[in-house]
Design goal:
alpha/beta; Arc Repressor Mutant, subunit A; Rossmann fold; 2 domains; seven-stranded mixed beta sheet; three-stranded antiparallel beta sheet; NagB/RpiA_transferase-like; DeoR family transcriptional regulator; transcription regulation; DeoR_HTH
Protein backbone atom coordinates (compact mmCIF):
# COMPACT_ATOMS: atom_id res chain seq x y z
CA UNK A 1 0.00 0.00 0.00
CA UNK A 2 2.74 2.47 1.00
CA UNK A 3 4.73 1.63 -2.11
CA UNK A 4 1.74 2.15 -4.38
CA UNK A 5 1.03 5.50 -2.76
CA UNK A 6 4.65 6.59 -3.11
CA UNK A 7 4.54 5.62 -6.77
CA UNK A 8 1.40 7.72 -7.26
CA UNK A 9 2.98 10.74 -5.61
CA UNK A 10 6.03 10.50 -7.85
CA UNK A 11 3.89 10.06 -10.97
CA UNK A 12 1.69 13.03 -10.07
CA UNK A 13 4.70 15.24 -9.37
CA UNK A 14 6.27 14.22 -12.68
CA UNK A 15 3.05 15.05 -14.57
CA UNK A 16 2.82 18.47 -12.95
CA UNK A 17 6.45 19.25 -13.75
CA UNK A 18 5.49 19.37 -17.42
CA UNK A 19 1.80 20.34 -17.38
CA UNK A 20 1.81 22.72 -14.37
CA UNK A 21 -1.96 22.29 -14.00
CA UNK A 22 -3.85 18.98 -13.95
CA UNK A 23 -7.58 18.51 -13.57
CA UNK A 24 -8.59 16.17 -10.77
CA UNK A 25 -10.43 13.87 -13.17
CA UNK A 26 -7.41 13.66 -15.48
CA UNK A 27 -5.11 12.96 -12.54
CA UNK A 28 -7.32 10.10 -11.37
CA UNK A 29 -7.35 8.61 -14.88
CA UNK A 30 -3.59 8.98 -15.17
CA UNK A 31 -2.97 7.24 -11.85
CA UNK A 32 -5.71 4.64 -12.22
CA UNK A 33 -7.39 5.50 -8.93
CA UNK A 34 -10.52 7.33 -7.76
CA UNK A 35 -10.75 11.12 -7.53
CA UNK A 36 -11.15 10.75 -3.77
CA UNK A 37 -7.82 8.94 -3.57
CA UNK A 38 -6.11 11.72 -5.52
CA UNK A 39 -7.68 14.35 -3.27
CA UNK A 40 -6.36 12.47 -0.25
CA UNK A 41 -2.86 12.22 -1.73
CA UNK A 42 -2.86 15.94 -2.49
CA UNK A 43 -4.11 16.89 0.97
CA UNK A 44 -1.48 14.70 2.64
CA UNK A 45 1.35 16.31 0.68
CA UNK A 46 0.87 20.09 0.92
CA UNK A 47 4.58 20.63 0.41
CA UNK A 48 4.20 19.17 -3.10
CA UNK A 49 0.69 19.94 -4.29
CA UNK A 50 -2.09 22.48 -4.08
CA UNK A 51 -5.75 22.02 -5.03
CA UNK A 52 -7.56 24.90 -6.74
CA UNK A 53 -11.09 24.76 -8.07
CA UNK A 54 -10.91 21.17 -9.30
CA UNK A 55 -7.31 21.49 -10.49
CA UNK A 56 -4.02 20.31 -8.98
CA UNK A 57 -0.99 22.58 -9.17
CA UNK A 58 2.57 22.39 -7.80
CA UNK A 59 2.87 23.86 -4.30
CA UNK A 60 5.68 26.09 -5.56
CA UNK A 61 3.21 27.91 -7.81
CA UNK A 62 1.33 29.39 -4.86
CA UNK A 63 1.93 33.09 -4.39
CA UNK A 64 3.03 34.82 -1.19
CA UNK A 65 3.89 33.64 2.28
CA UNK A 66 0.30 32.77 3.13
CA UNK A 67 -1.29 31.65 -0.17
CA UNK A 68 -5.00 32.01 -0.77
CA UNK A 69 -6.01 28.43 -1.50
CA UNK A 70 -9.33 28.00 -3.25
CA UNK A 71 -9.85 24.55 -1.81
CA UNK A 72 -9.50 25.87 1.74
CA UNK A 73 -11.58 28.97 1.02
CA UNK A 74 -14.36 26.89 -0.50
CA UNK A 75 -14.90 25.16 2.82
CA UNK A 76 -15.01 28.45 4.74
CA UNK A 77 -18.50 29.90 5.33
CA UNK A 78 -19.86 27.75 2.49
CA UNK A 79 -23.50 27.93 3.61
CA UNK A 80 -23.35 31.73 3.94
CA UNK A 81 -21.76 32.08 0.49
CA UNK A 82 -24.44 29.90 -1.03
CA UNK A 83 -27.21 31.91 0.61
CA UNK A 84 -25.67 35.20 -0.55
CA UNK A 85 -25.74 33.87 -4.10
CA UNK A 86 -29.41 32.93 -3.74
CA UNK A 87 -30.13 36.62 -3.14
CA UNK A 88 -27.78 37.71 -5.93
CA UNK A 89 -29.37 35.37 -8.46
CA UNK A 90 -32.49 37.54 -8.46
CA UNK A 91 -30.56 39.98 -10.63
CA UNK A 92 -29.93 37.43 -13.37
CA UNK A 93 -32.30 38.07 -16.26
CA UNK A 94 -32.80 36.14 -19.51
CA UNK A 95 -30.92 37.14 -22.67
CA UNK A 96 -28.41 39.31 -20.83
CA UNK A 97 -24.64 39.25 -20.32
CA UNK A 98 -23.32 38.82 -16.80
CA UNK A 99 -19.83 38.93 -15.32
CA UNK A 100 -18.92 36.47 -12.57
CA UNK A 101 -15.83 37.32 -10.52
CA UNK A 102 -13.18 34.88 -9.33
CA UNK A 103 -12.96 33.29 -5.87
CA UNK A 104 -15.14 30.68 -4.20
CA UNK A 105 -18.28 32.65 -3.32
CA UNK A 106 -19.63 33.14 -6.82
CA UNK A 107 -19.21 29.49 -7.80
CA UNK A 108 -22.61 28.98 -6.20
CA UNK A 109 -24.17 31.69 -8.37
CA UNK A 110 -23.45 29.64 -11.49
CA UNK A 111 -25.58 26.79 -10.18
CA UNK A 112 -28.49 29.22 -9.75
CA UNK A 113 -28.62 30.43 -13.35
CA UNK A 114 -32.05 29.22 -14.57
CA UNK A 115 -31.73 26.37 -17.05
CA UNK A 116 -34.15 28.03 -19.50
CA UNK A 117 -32.23 31.33 -19.60
CA UNK A 118 -30.11 32.08 -22.65
CA UNK A 119 -27.24 33.81 -20.86
CA UNK A 120 -23.77 35.02 -21.80
CA UNK A 121 -21.39 34.70 -18.85
CA UNK A 122 -17.99 36.39 -18.71
CA UNK A 123 -15.39 35.02 -16.30
CA UNK A 124 -11.64 34.75 -15.77
CA UNK A 125 -11.17 31.88 -13.32
CA UNK A 126 -11.04 28.14 -13.89
CA UNK A 127 -13.35 27.15 -11.04
CA UNK A 128 -16.13 29.42 -12.31
CA UNK A 129 -15.59 28.44 -15.95
CA UNK A 130 -15.71 24.75 -15.10
CA UNK A 131 -19.09 25.17 -13.44
CA UNK A 132 -20.40 27.23 -16.35
CA UNK A 133 -19.63 24.42 -18.79
CA UNK A 134 -22.36 22.38 -17.11
CA UNK A 135 -24.98 24.94 -18.18
CA UNK A 136 -26.19 24.04 -21.70
CA UNK A 137 -27.80 27.42 -22.43
CA UNK A 138 -24.90 29.57 -21.22
CA UNK A 139 -22.42 31.02 -23.69
CA UNK A 140 -19.06 31.43 -21.95
CA UNK A 141 -16.57 34.22 -22.57
CA UNK A 142 -13.30 33.30 -20.85
CA UNK A 143 -10.81 36.13 -20.35
CA UNK A 144 -7.26 34.96 -20.98
CA UNK A 145 -3.80 36.10 -20.04
CA UNK A 146 -1.25 34.98 -17.47
CA UNK A 147 -2.48 32.18 -15.19
CA UNK A 148 -2.27 32.69 -11.40
CA UNK A 149 -2.65 29.40 -9.50
CA UNK A 150 -3.27 31.20 -6.20
CA UNK A 151 -6.75 32.19 -7.35
CA UNK A 152 -7.05 29.96 -10.44
CA UNK A 153 -7.54 33.14 -12.46
CA UNK A 154 -6.04 34.94 -15.44
CA UNK A 155 -4.82 38.50 -15.87
CA UNK A 156 -3.27 40.62 -18.60
CA UNK A 157 -3.93 43.00 -21.46
CA UNK A 158 -5.62 40.38 -23.64
CA UNK A 159 -8.40 39.89 -21.11
CA UNK A 160 -8.85 43.62 -20.60
CA UNK A 161 -9.02 44.15 -24.35
CA UNK A 162 -11.73 41.50 -24.63
CA UNK A 163 -13.77 43.31 -21.99
CA UNK A 164 -13.70 46.48 -24.06
CA UNK A 165 -15.71 44.71 -26.77
CA UNK A 166 -18.40 43.35 -24.46
CA UNK A 167 -21.68 44.79 -23.28
CA UNK A 168 -22.13 43.67 -19.67
CA UNK A 169 -25.56 44.08 -18.15
CA UNK A 170 -24.85 42.86 -14.62
CA UNK A 171 -21.53 42.29 -12.85
CA UNK A 172 -21.25 40.19 -9.72
CA UNK A 173 -18.06 41.10 -7.88
CA UNK A 174 -16.42 39.35 -4.93
CA UNK A 175 -14.08 40.74 -2.27
CA UNK A 176 -11.94 39.46 0.57
CA UNK A 177 -12.51 42.63 2.55
CA UNK A 178 -15.36 45.16 2.72
CA UNK A 179 -14.80 48.32 4.76
CA UNK A 180 -17.42 51.12 4.73
CA UNK A 181 -14.73 53.79 4.62
CA UNK A 182 -11.91 52.16 2.68
CA UNK A 183 -14.01 50.25 0.16
CA UNK A 184 -13.73 46.80 -1.42
CA UNK A 185 -10.38 45.02 -1.31
CA UNK A 186 -8.93 41.67 -2.35
CA UNK A 187 -5.83 39.64 -1.61
CA UNK A 188 -4.21 39.58 -5.04
CA UNK A 189 -3.16 42.67 -6.98
CA UNK A 190 -3.46 40.91 -10.35
CA UNK A 191 -7.26 40.79 -9.93
CA UNK A 192 -7.61 44.56 -9.56
CA UNK A 193 -7.40 45.65 -13.24
CA UNK A 194 -10.06 43.12 -14.28
CA UNK A 195 -12.42 44.09 -11.48
CA UNK A 196 -11.99 47.81 -12.16
CA UNK A 197 -12.49 47.47 -15.92
CA UNK A 198 -15.66 45.44 -15.38
CA UNK A 199 -17.04 47.94 -12.87
CA UNK A 200 -16.47 50.76 -15.37
CA UNK A 201 -18.24 48.89 -18.17
CA UNK A 202 -21.16 47.13 -16.50
CA UNK A 203 -24.61 48.68 -16.27
CA UNK A 204 -25.17 47.26 -12.77
CA UNK A 205 -22.52 46.21 -10.22
CA UNK A 206 -23.25 44.07 -7.16
CA UNK A 207 -20.78 43.10 -4.45
CA UNK A 208 -21.50 39.57 -3.23
CA UNK A 209 -19.80 38.48 0.01
CA UNK A 210 -20.54 36.58 3.18
CA UNK A 211 -20.68 38.65 6.37
CA UNK A 212 -17.27 37.44 7.55
CA UNK A 213 -15.74 39.82 4.97
CA UNK A 214 -17.45 42.92 6.40
CA UNK A 215 -15.05 45.14 8.33
CA UNK A 216 -11.95 43.49 6.86
CA UNK A 217 -9.28 45.31 4.88
CA UNK A 218 -7.03 43.44 2.45
CA UNK A 219 -3.97 44.83 0.63
CA UNK A 220 -5.36 45.27 -2.91
CA UNK A 221 -7.96 48.06 -3.14
CA UNK A 222 -10.22 47.91 -6.18
CA UNK A 223 -13.33 50.06 -5.61
CA UNK A 224 -15.08 52.50 -3.27
CA UNK A 225 -18.40 51.27 -1.95
CA UNK A 226 -20.38 53.82 -3.94
CA UNK A 227 -19.81 52.06 -7.26
CA UNK A 228 -21.96 49.11 -6.21
CA UNK A 229 -25.72 49.20 -6.47
CA UNK A 230 -25.84 47.03 -3.36
CA UNK A 231 -23.85 44.71 -1.13
CA UNK A 232 -25.37 41.24 -1.04
CA UNK A 233 -24.72 38.91 1.91
CA UNK A 234 -26.46 35.87 3.33
CA UNK A 235 -28.88 38.31 5.01
CA UNK A 236 -29.93 39.88 1.73
CA UNK A 237 -29.18 43.24 0.11
CA UNK A 238 -27.98 46.50 1.57
CA UNK A 239 -28.73 49.28 -0.89
CA UNK A 240 -25.96 51.81 -1.43
CA UNK A 241 -27.41 54.00 -4.15
CA UNK A 242 -30.64 54.64 -5.92
CA UNK A 243 -31.61 52.01 -8.45
Amino acid sequence: MANRRATRIIALADALSTRRVLHLKDAAALLGVSEMTVRRDVADNPELFGYLGGHIVPAADFEGDAPYELARAADSHAAAKREACVHAARHIRPDETIFIDCGTTLEYLVDLIPENYSTTAVCYSLNVAERLTRKPNVRIVMLGGVYHPSSASFSGNSGLETLNHLGINVAFLSAAGVDPGRGATCVHFHEVPVKQRVIALARENYLVVDKSKIGRLKPAFFAPMGVFRSVITEDGETMLSAA
